Amino acid sequence: MLNNSLELNPQSMANLGNKSKRFNTTTLLLCEGIEDRSFLRALIGGRNLGPFDVKTASDICGDAGKGAFSKALEYAVPITGFGNIERIGIIADADNHYRKTVNDICDQIKKANENSNVAGRFSIPAAPYQLSGGKPRIMIVLFPAQNRRGALDTLLWGAIQDMKIFAGKLHCIEESVDCADIRKWQKATLDKSRVRIALALSHKRSPAVSIRKIGLQYPDVIPIASEEFDEIAKAISLIRS
Question: How far apart are CA 90 and CA 48, in angstroms?
Fold first, then answer.
């Protein structure tokens, strides 16, 4: 027996889809949170990667985070325009366990397929950074890069270290890390702290500037052209190719 985890009948799903924002392209990028969404939109626009629908899980199903991909896939099916979606990129932080994160996302794809309204339409990629078969084809992409631990902030921290405006402040950031005795934190968490310290020390107009504003309202903070973002930009291009 199929497990309808949404506990919604097809009509309820259709009604939900009608109330949701439609899909306008053939490629959906599904990410964890609003900072990821903002970064991806800035990267796509800044590098002219082409038209994408970029949405968080919460945009689609109301639940946020890495554990909401299954529900988001289920809820995406009845949304207007989903029938035109040919490719889906599921983009998440690798965090401290790259392989575990990949396996968890694959398990969520399997779970979505068990929903009677989905009916097994999603194929599971053989490996991250590779497109699955079927329609829509799916690719799993993890921040910061293939086979690396960390998060979006790990990418941002890499870009920050290469920028002249931060050159005289890097030692201050590392001294803060040592002073707070957080160097043993997991990489993703440590890099999040480093990025926020760097922004607070360097952005006079708004020391509390959010990563959501980077590349959009404040393109001077971390240039979207940074070579640190080349691999993720290439992966996004492959999703749409």
Answer: 20
